[in-house]
Specification:
Blueprint lengths: L1 H18 L7 E14 L6 E13 L4 E8 L7 E7 L5 E2 L5 E2 L8 E2 L5 E3 L3 E10 L3 E7 L3 E9 L3 E10 L3 H26 L3
Antiparallel strand pairs: 1-2, 2-3, 3-10, 4-9, 4-11, 5-10, 6-7, 8-9, 11-12
């Protein structure tokens, strides 16, 4: 008799779960702003500023952060490369990807494919160099911290502190705690080798 009741409760639970709508993924703005590249253009003693807008949005459906960067090169100083020094990348947004929604400060279509180099940075290259407005980005499972970036026009400018992904301290601590039993067992085996019974 007990088995039948448990089966009935399990079926009732499945029906209840099937009738409950799934929660919708939410986009949440995490960080946005702008920073300036300042550098002398190639063959010139004058310095130039290019403002780079950035936007980081978290998607609770995919559990990923989307990092977006937007800039407009100067007409007399076209840009050939944009490089973000960042680890922990899960992908680069492809050209034509449409960015829209109220969570995003930067919207529009991604203008260029990028490439991940050795897992330590992402690079976008324009050949010939461009003077058009650009929107580029990538995704990561890690939230933002301050990093650095480089714009290249023959000479280069460095953008200080754009948001880049980094593991949270709790993630690093959890990883270290997972290694603790391995370390303890290694110490025990060494002690047994030194002091055989």
């Amino acid at each position: 008799m007990i088995n039948y009741k448990l089966a009935a409760v399990a079926v009732g639970t499945l029906v209840l779960a099937a009738g409950t709508p799934a929660t919708r993924a939410a986009l949440t703005s995490v960080d946005s702003g702008s920073a300036s590249f300042v550098w002398p253009a190639s063959g010139s003693s004058a310095s130039f500023n290019i403002d780079v807008g950035y936007d980081v949005v978290f998607d609770s459906g995919t559990m990923q952060y989307t990092y977006l960067y937007n800039f407009t090169p100067l007409t007399d100083s076209p840009i050939g490369q944009f490089q973000i020094n960042a680890n922990y990348l899960s992908g680069v947004l492809t050209e034509g990807t449409l960015i829209s929604g109220s969570a995003y400060d930067l919207t529009g279509a991604v203008t260029e494919d990028g490439s991940i180099n050795a897992g330590t940075d992402v690079l976008w290259t324009w050949n010939p160099a461009t003077t058009k407005e650009q929107l580029v980005g990538f995704t990561s499972y890690f939230g933002p911290t301050d990093g650095d970036a480089v714009l290249t026009d023959g000479s280069f400018g460095i953008l200080a502190d754009p948001p880049v992904p980094v593991p949270e301290a709790s993630t690093v601590l959890a990883g270290a705690l997972m290694l603790l039993p391995l370390g303890i067992s290694t110490l025990r085996s060494w002690r047994k080798e030194l002091n055989p019974v």
